[in-house]
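Example 3.
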Amino acid sequence: MATDRFALPEPGSPATVTFPPVSRSLMPNGLGVWSIVQAPVPVVSCALVVNRGTAGDPQDRPGLASFVASLAIESAGDRDSIALADALARIGAHLDVQPSTDVTVISVQTLTRHLPAALDLMADIVRRPQFAAGDFARVRELRLSRLRQASRVASTIADRALIAGVYGDHPYGHGALGTSRAVAAITIDQVRDWWAQAWSPAGATFVAAGDIDAKTLEREVARTFGDWRATSAAAETPPPRADAAARRLLAVHRPGSAQAEVRVGQLGPRRDTPDYHALVTVNALLGGQFTSRINRNLREQRAITYGARSAFDMRRAGGLFSCDTSVQSDSAAIAASEILRELGEVRIPGAVSADELARAQAGLTRGYVRHFETVGQLTRALVDLATYRLPDDTFDRFVPRISALTTDDIVSAAAATMRPDDCTVVVVADLDRHRDALDALGRDVAVTSVEF
Amino acid sequence: MRVPFEKRTLPNGLDVIVHEDHRVPLVAVSVWYHVGSKNERPGKTGFAHLFEHLMFEGSEHHRRSYFEPLQHAGGTLNGSTSTDRTDYWEVVPTEAARLALWMEADRMGWLLPALTPDNFETQRGVVINERRQNYENKPYGLAQFTLARALYPEGHPYSWPTIGEIDDLQAASIDDVRGFFARYYHPANASLVIAGDLATTKAFEMAEELFGGIPAGPRVEAVSAPPVESRAQTVFMNDRVDLARIYLAWPTPPLFADGDAELDLAADLLANGRTSRLYRRLVHDRRVATELAASQSSRELVSTFQIVATAAPGQSLATLRTAIDEEIDRLRQSGPDDSELARGRAQAEAAFIYRVQSLGGTGGRADQLNAYNVYQGRPDGFDADLSRYLNATPERLRDTVARWIAPERATVLSVLPMGHAADSAGL
């Protein structure tokens, strides 16, 4: 065997990949219809994006958007809850309603031959939910039980504490499921009102990808959603002002915890920031990949965790940067201080070498096509375009933009965005045993509880 | 269902399966080693999985993390360990196909020279953290371990958890790593799938070039275990949870054996989703349960059928147990309606189509080809597998449930909130 056999192969030159063409039309009621033809398997993936999500929850009713989503997929049209689930199951379709902070996405995946039936059911859920009293009472009980269950999950407690710490009273500051207090107070009239205002074709977009041509899809959407009338336009979410719990360590006592959940977070940019590509790259250096600095540090060097990752969740009105990990109980302070140190170091000129940048760029660009392999992934890409009102060429610009970045671009974007001193730090652990060790971080420790 | 492929077995015993598909410029690589936690022994549990971690730490000709070159080539990669097998996979852009194959070959042939005590200690620490994060620190996280210990007799290969017991992980030694590699990690105990944007001839050439020189290892004897019969027993544990939960479990026919598919259908019909009999009764109509699920977890030696129900606040597990027993009883007496079975078949057909959409990764086409090849000796199992569901009859489903899922011979685990005594479950 030649020596060549034992030399690590270099990957060849990447092929240029373009995002598949998107057909777009606008129906008279304001509903946009976007689609991509891709027919490797006889499957169509559809999603309807309506312009209100959990940020639209009334101040005293956190959880309403999510509650409406759960109730809409109970009885709808002329079917009761069980009959609706049965009709979906009989065609093997998967239907889901998922509120995010800015939008609610009603999606369905179906075999092509069942598309008309699947869209009929989807239209029933969107346009003709019954909001029946029996369903309402049952769904509320289930939601209250789910909140009780969630209140026991360390990672969920930590996530809630973090968004409350970063956003405070801002509409992005509460968990999607809301609180037991709010859910117990929801009335069926509030459900109907919220649904009537939020689930509207005004500014909504129907997206689809799969084994279907644009004309057929538009005809099917016109048949099922063409006479859907707009009610009102969604209100815009105001931008958050400042990190609510800046510089603090929020400690949550969870008796008997076997690990410490750690979160470090801060306000971040909106999705339309001009620094988008630089910050995606900053995140790849910090915690976006297995090989990123934070995971290497906490997992591969210190062996105090199974993994650590970071992400920018760039929302319409103002995003969240967060880093999360679960570490052994005695290591929460060191984990947080190492994360904060890493956030600070990418801001320093010279801290990112040309080589490290080149590897991060290659990691982001060379495999970019992996995100657009299945019809479900293509539909999600279209949902992103619709949610953040992004230009048509968003995905085609990604690779050239990332590739053009210099180390100066990275460091200046990081310097403008990362603010380790202002970060909120959250630790969920058994504080009876591990409270004192948290002082090592040198921050005010606020022992807090999280409402579920 | 068409997942075209060609299969060859190299002289060293490595099965190579190539599935050519040029629609997306990606190549998926999947390597299955036919070894899992069932090959371990009591006192040495968790080793197959700990070993899997070490497979990412470097090999003789690349003595550092496996993630670096592959992620920087635009790839994604991971591995997983089950009771029965261990898998490693990459999905890379076409131009990095050789890199991915080279790395799989280097760790198949030349892992040990790169193994260091430091790497070993680090990954031992990582795995102990993984166990605490995913099991100890999760509500109900240890229930499956308790159930497996009750269901399978001491010493049975499915009686211990794949992640391993903490004491065993602490006691594992680097010599164990060497022995394990020599015994299980070699071409004759492995199966390689190369799927995607690579010509079949080219893929075989690369496989032969890179893997052909790895010596065949010793034959691995199949693990055997005495048959396990279901028996009535009740087990109980406290956990830091708010709502009580009941698990009923039975040993059932192995993967692909007679009855396996019928039990999969029975699980959906009994307790999965809003159309299931128990959901309607316990969650929808009587509102005494909040969560329900059932599964036939199909495995090589013996499968496990399980029903899990979480009580609504203030409801007793005895109420749930009675309803579950009655529904099983009804199913084993009268079988499913034709209409229920038709629904199950429709869902199975759709699921088979949905799951061939992804080329690689967990559950992708490459992974499925390997699963059929390792468990059945031939990669083209799709149609035969689906036909088990399409050909199920009400009578066979009824008889299978009657034979294997007897309420009077269930292993029953109740998980109660802290401070609640066993007898408060009312079972």
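The mean pLDDT of chain A is 95. Chain A is about 40% helix and 20% strand.
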